[in-house]
Amino acid sequence: xxxxxxxxxxxxxxxxxxxxxxxxxxxxxxxxxxxxxxxxxxxxxxxxxxxxxxxxxxxxxxxxxxxxxxxxxxxxxxxxxxxxxxxxxxxxxxxxxxxxxxxxxxxxxxxxxxxxxxxxxxxxxxxxxxxxxxxxxxxxxxxxxxxxxxxxxxxxxxxxxxxxxxxxxxxxxxxxxxxxxxxxxxxxxxxxxxxxxxxxxxxxxxxxxxxxxxxxxxxxxxxxxxxxxxxxxxxxxxxxxxxxxxxxxxxxxxxxxxxxxxxxxxxxxxxxxxxxxxxxxxxxxxxxxxxxxxxxxxxxxxxxxxxxxxxxxxxxxxxxxxxxxxxxxxxxxxxxxxxxxxxxxxxxxxxxxxxxxxxxxxxxxxxxxxxxxxxxxxxxxxxxxxxxxxxxxxxxxxxxxxxxxxxxxxxxxxxxxxxxxxxxxxxxxxxxxxxxxxxxxxxxxxxxxxxxxxxxxxxxxxxxxxxxxxxxxxxxxxxxxxxxxxxxxxxxxxxxxxxxxxxxxxxxxxxxxxxxxxxxxxxxxxxxxxxxxxxxxxxxxxxxxxxxxxxxxxxxxxxxxxxxxxxxxxxxxxxxxxxxxxxxxxxxxxxxxxxxxxxxxxxxxxxxxxxxxxxxxxxxxxxxxxxxxxxxxxxxxxxxxxxxxxxxxxxxxxxxxxxxxxxxxxxxxxxxxxxxxxxxxxxxxxxxxxxxxxxxxxxxxxxxxxxxxxxxxxxxxxxxxxxxxxxxxxxxxxxxxxxxxxxxxxxxxxxxxxxxxxxxxxxxxxxxxxxxxxxxxxxxxxxxxxxxxxxxxxxxxxxxxxxxxxxxxxxxxxxxxxxxxxxxxxxxxxxxxxxxxxxxxxxxxxxxxxxxxxxxxxxxxxxxxxxxxxxxxxxxxxxxxxxxxxxxxxxxxxxxxxxxxxxxxxxxxxxxxxxxxxxxxxxxxxxxxxxxxxxxxxxxxxxxxxxxxxxxxxxxxxxxxxxxxxxxxxxxxxxxxxxxxxxxxxxxxxxxxxxxxxxxxxxxxxxxxxxxxxxxxxxxxxxxxxxxxxxxxxxxxxxxxxxxxxxxxxxxxxxxxxxxxxxxxxxxxxxxxxxxxxxxxxxxxxxxxxxxxxxxxxxxxxxxxxxxxxxxxxxxxxxxxxxxxxxxxxxxxxxxxxxxxxxxxxxxxxxxxxxxxxxxxxxxxxxxxxxxxxxxxxxxxxxxxxxxxxxxxxxxxxxxxxxxxxxxxxxxxxxxxxxxxxxxxxxxxxxxxxxxxxxxxxxxxxxxxxxxxxxxxxxxxxxxxxxxxxxxxxxxxxxxxxxxxxxxxxxxxxxxxxxxxxxxxxxxxxxxxxxxxxxxxxxxxxxxxxxxxxxxxxxxxxxxxxxxxxxxxxxxxxxxxxxxxxxxxxxxxxxxxxxxxxxxxxxxxxxxxxxxxxxxxxxxxxxxxxxxxxxxxxxxxxxxxxxxxxxxxxxxxxxxxxxxxxxxxxxxxxxxxxxxxxxxxxxxxxxxxxxxxxx
Length: 1479
Description:
Blueprint: H1 10-14, H2 16-32, H3 44-63, H4 68-79, H5 85-102, H6 110-119, H7 123-129, H8 132-138, H9 144-159, H10 172-182, H11 192-206, H12 210-223, H13 228-237, H14 242-259, H15 264-275, H16 281-285, H17 292-313, H18 322-341, H19 344-347, H20 350-361, H21 364-371, H22 383-404, H23 431-445, H24 453-472, H25 476-499, H26 504-514, H27 519-531, H28 533-536, H29 538-555, H30 563-574, H31 578-591, H32 596-601, H33 608-623, E1 629-630, E2 635-636, H34 638-653, H35 659-670, H36 677-688, H37 698-704, H38 708-714, H39 720-736, H40 740-757, H41 764-788, H42 791-797, H43 801-805, H44 812-837, H45 846-868, H46 876-879, H47 882-890, H48 893-896, H49 900-909, H50 920-954, H51 969-984, H52 988-1003, H53 1011-1019, H54 1023-1027, H55 1031-1053, H56 1055-1061, E3 1069-1071, E4 1081-1082, H57 1085-1107, H58 1112-1124, H59 1133-1150, H60 1155-1170, H61 1178-1181, E5 1194-1195, E6 1198-1199, H62 1200-1206, E7 1215-1218, E8 1221-1231, E9 1234-1239, H63 1246-1266, H64 1268-1275, H65 1279-1293, H66 1315-1322, H67 1324-1347, H68 1349-1358, H69 1361-1372, H70 1376-1388, H71 1394-1418, ...
Antiparallel strand pairs: 1-2, 3-4, 5-6, 7-8, 8-9, 10-11
Helix pairs in contact: 2-3, 3-5, 10-11, 10-12, 11-13, 12-13, 12-15, 15-20, 17-29, 20-22, 22-23, 22-24, 23-25, 24-25, 24-26, 25-27, 29-30, 29-31, 31-33, 31-34, 34-36, 35-40, 36-39, 36-41, 37-38, 40-41, 44-45, 45-50, 49-50, 51-53, 52-55, 55-56, 55-58, 57-58, 57-59, 58-60, 59-60, 59-65, 62-63
């Protein structure tokens, strides 16, 4: 108070006589006239200002600003203004005295101050207030010691001496009047302000103790809490402090605790005072018992007990104590119930009782303040507290509940009264009030709301109404409710459901609200409910432990016979807490797949919430980072297979949401993990009833070629009534989650990349299985969509064909598989539109319908052809027209033929005759089904005729007429690569389609298409095709080969079939004539049989190569293909013997090593032995020419030795590998096996290599002659053994059985006795002489060529192809003497450059060879069957078109290198190294 003067200024003291005195007096009067009835300064602000004014006046007096003669009259006057003013003046004087005593400088002012106080006659007040030392120094008392002694005696008598009656010296009449006044009826006239005046009068009149009066007021409040507003208002006016009230209440609390009395009223009083801010919470809290530390210890002890119980669940005991365990469980349950009933411990806890009182009066904020002193959910875990909080929520939510949940008039629900307290939380009248007021209370309550299930129902019903409005109107308020209620579900409702004992009604009520949310939100809540929430509450830990114990007990007894009782038990356990139960069940299902059926059947009593939780648990287990492969990553893990089977079964049988599992599969595909497609495959198979085409029989495949009704009746195993509902559910889930087309596209992309993404797999078996799974699932899923989803829905979601091919990076086979139904629908719509334009639509003839159909095709497919053209190179369209490409990919088997025999078979099955066992309804259904089948067959036939007419019209422009010297095989190559091969391995039905399509091209007499070349390309070398197939692709490829072999063998079976279906067909033309005066050349029947024999041989050779490779994939695929084509191949006994021998070898090698290969080989071996009776010998298959000795054997006009000599110089349509360098030779002209060679690249050392081979072969023959044992052994062999070994020898030499082995093209060997054969034999002697001379010349030139090897290669690369052709033609006209002349000239030029020498040597050898061939050809011209010629003769005005090489013109389909004798090969390599060393 020593600061600057604020109430008075220095002018006041200067002008004291004039204006200062009156001014100061007026200020004092203003401070004391506010409440003249108040005997003291009860208002703190007024007392403080008055003290300030007195302080400033006294300070001015002490400083000398105010003289003493002026100050004493002024103070004497103001003392008379108020009775307490003298006391106030003494208090201020004491403060100034303390300030003066603290500073020596002002110590002199003490005496004037004391003199002033003495003059005012305030000795009594000074003696009461001042210290004894001060009183003695001021002279107020004469003897300080005597005064102090008397003071002690007075205080002792006053405070410590007891009286016999009325110790407080109070009059009892005053208390009686006070009690009467406090407990009177409270009316509007009785107010706290009037009551406080009465209390003041009673205290003053009867000398009542103020604290005792305060205690009586608190007692009245305790007895009448409903009048709390009156009493709290009175206490606010009563002059008392919070500490005083806390002491009074604390004394009572202690007495209640000692006496064991129940004082509910006092806790209510405390709660009301705290709520009214009269009593500070901190003042009363220190009086409450027990201590916080002891309560926290109790909570921690409860937590540890719960964790111990949870740990005991996982302990496995080997003792058989079923009975003891049941008794123990019963005792534990009774103990827990007893603890719940024992509420005594909560009554003795004053803090718990205070919490209850706070909640009852609506002091929500004060309860939160108290609960924060303890761990989360500790206070609400006490049942009385949680029940009190539930009542508070009931009272708050009641108006909103009555507003949105109206009961019928005849039903009267229990009405909850609102809290009569203006300070309590306001009632909720809107959803915003619920969100802001109710939800925080519920979150604080947590799972302990289970004490009041009725409250849970109220909250859920209000939320259901609110969430429906959220979906309609999305303002901010409702959006807040939408997300806030998720928190309530997560923290309150679902955990509370876990504590309840079986309440399926509440579970269904929760599901009605939860299903409004998408599965993403639901699964997030389920995850927290199952994995996190239980760990936060000891009561949930115990509940989970009890559930798991019961679940284990039930799962140990589940069988097919105990499904009904077990299903009831599982239902009861999962009604309230399904997560842990399902997790345990799914673990058991993964381990034991035989539990799938009983477990799925036992789920029939589950709630909707449990079903949804089951779907989440499945996704959660699939999301775990578990190894999905087994057996060293060679197979899919059994747990994944079992879980996939379980998924398909349970999703089919029960109405579960599929969004989560489908999105999981899509996410896995985005991460390029295709192994989880097994789940989607099982779901589509079981729910949609769509099997993979790989599992269908031949009859079912034929049925799939028919209409929709036939496919449903004969093409599937499942009955429609069993899958109708589940199929619709799957479709709705796909469309609602927008996953139908994305899943298809993801599978298509994964199919293209699975081989590259799985390169880290240690075994190709798994990679192939994943590829097959991706392919099969994609086809299965696409077939389901095309069957269930309307075309309009598909067209809105599926990208265009151009987008599929470019932006989606999808191959043509998949793109057209997806777009084919859309194209078909567009065509049908356009066709119907054109038909409706005609007035007589129903009277149209078949020809008119065909015309309209052709018009529709032109309008629909014209723009599509334009779209697909840019997505392929221009070179492709040089060989085929885009319309043919589109036609091939848009047609299906149902467009090519009608399965009439299947229709007839299904119609015969239908028995429409009425009988006693059939109801009329069933008979009518069968009659209707038969009529529908007949009608569908008729429509299919009309459709096939229309398609046939379309193909007949388009066939002329499919394949272009190429220039004579351009390779004709490009057309067939493009057809095979872009159309046939991609589709024949797509599905089994497509494999059949491809075989039928080739035959259709032949039957249509398609111009510029050679059927022979096409088949020859397919059969000549299938080694690499077989080696590159997966398991399912091998099966499909076998179906394709079987279909083509059926066609080929049908023509081979009889000459009449051949003449009827092949003779004079463009596909069998061997030589086209430009001049119309001469007819084209065609293959006759006998030559065709030779060709077929060659194809069989080629297939045998390729499959034997795969069987002997030792590679798992090749062996498996070869056996699968052999199994698939067993009905048509092998058809010849000696080829079958070769295959059987290799199969037996595989069996011996793979037994106890790779058992799956052994089983396959063993199976095929048995089937092959059973089919031996239907095989035919080679002589019946075709006319076999007589075999000649190996030294004199002539093949195609050339001895075998001559061929061996020229083998290194050139090979027709093949490749020769020497010293790791490839030499390619192109065939330009051939007639009856006489070939004109055009060299592209040659090795000068090839002749030397052949010469070495000849020496080795002669040495080998000499060894055989010298070995008498071998000779004797050979003499004992039978004729069949000799034939089999001859075939095997041919296979190892890569030679042809009856045709030129140096060419993989189609060359027919004429039958024995024919003119062509006799003419050829006449030339054998001349050929032998020429061959001997040629070999001699080669021997002489070998050393020269080896020295000039390096330079000759560089010289050859610089020489042009045209110069070599001109030299070949110039030397071709010379006689054989030209060769000798050339050799003489060559000797004279031996001193020339080495490069020129080497070039002339090669030219000379070619001249000799061509001259010999020309002489042989002139004797047989006109009798040739030409398949490898593509050259024009301008003199004869004709040209020949044929295949250059009957294998596919790509490096994948070339013949693999044949096996050689290792010893012989090592000898050749050693000789080659020695020659390199010498040179």
